[in-house]
Amino acid sequence: MTKPVLNVGLVGSGFMGRCHANAFRAVGGLFDLPVDIHLHTLADIDDDTATLQARKLGFAYATGDWHTLIDNPDIDLVAITAPNALHEAITLAAINAGKNVYCEKPLSTTCESAKRMTDAAEQAGTTTLVGFNFLRNPLVHYAKGLIERGELGDIISFRGRHAEDYMGDPDTPHSFRTAVDGGGALADIGSHIVAMARFLIGPIAQVNAMTETVHKTRPERPGSTVRKPVETDDVAHALLRFGNGAAGSIDVSWMMKGKTMDLSFDITGTKGALQFTQERMNELLVWTDKDGPGNGGFRKIETGPAHPPYGQFCPAPGHHLGFNDLKVIEVAELIECIKQGKPHYTGFREGYEVQCTIDAMLASARHNQWVDVSDFIQP
């Protein structure tokens, strides 16, 4: 039986653009999808770049103007991996053209911008997803199940960190990441750990944050000897109060030497605790009171077929999932939501509330005081 075709348009072919393209190519061979995926059009910064990358990534058509992609009536889903400051314009155009939208995190650069995107999507009935791909890890869902079943007791605290080192060199030049409308470390990579905290523990009610710009200047562009001031954060620390009464903290840095992908958390409850780091993404450490006296210490849970959808990738435990596999899972979830016409748990509404939490942290850092996140969230 012939399946309907889902035509995909991709804006951007950098690191995350390649991840999206790889996921769209792979997903049909791993999941029983209700549609066949067709990589239709790739849009990039100019025609030559788009043509080259479309050939490499398997797209049928290429354009140096994302408006051309949006205006094509054949395209059903627009995936956006362009710089953060462009997310709103591309998204609003795609929604207005009747497309479903898959936008990389952060949803936008301010909660006001993210709200406009969310309102437009909800009014149009558009299926949306924000690329918080680390939430697709089967062991993160296993951890959430332990929490929801009460196996850790009442949650006392969450300690989260997203630390990398790719901006640690002061001679790394300016890019969209350091632009004022790019968000800095907290908005860019910090959105992942904020999303993780909300997914596992629940909404964050109050924050008290501080931020720091470590390298005050950077070369204005690759190869330049002219240095320009940096106006966004390199490091951020925040104390948290969750809506359910739990306390917590989040640390964010793209300056932490030796850390390449330390998205990690420690969760403590009245009956147990969890530890996880993305650097060992196939392992979750679990401690519970049920272990009994003399049996103390964390047990290692290793991902396997008992943790769906691991079995879609491999029938044997111990062979491990990777970063790109999480994107494949994300795409499979998105396609199922499009088919059923239902919202995804990290649709634009969640992306908006993550952005509001980050904006509250930035406001707290500016004013050096506790801030209510609810002051930033509009219905």
From TrEMBL:
Domain of life of the organism encoding this protein: Bacteria
The Gfo/Idh/MocA-like oxidoreductase N-terminal domain, residue ranges: 6-132
Enzyme Commission number(s): 1.1.99.28
This protein's UniProt keywords: Oxidoreductase
InterPro entries: Gfo/Idh/MocA-like_OxRdtase_N (IPR000683), Gfo/Idh/MocA_oxidrdct_glycsds (IPR050463), GFO_IDH_MocA-like_dom (IPR055170), NAD(P)-bd_dom_sf (IPR036291)
Entry GO MF terms: glucose-fructose oxidoreductase activity; nucleotide binding
Residue ranges of domain GFO/IDH/MocA-like oxidoreductase in the record: 141-274
PANTHER family, per database record: BCDNA.GH03377 (PTHR43818)
Name of the molecule in the record: Glucose--fructose oxidoreductase
Protein species of origin: Grimontia hollisae (Vibrio hollisae)
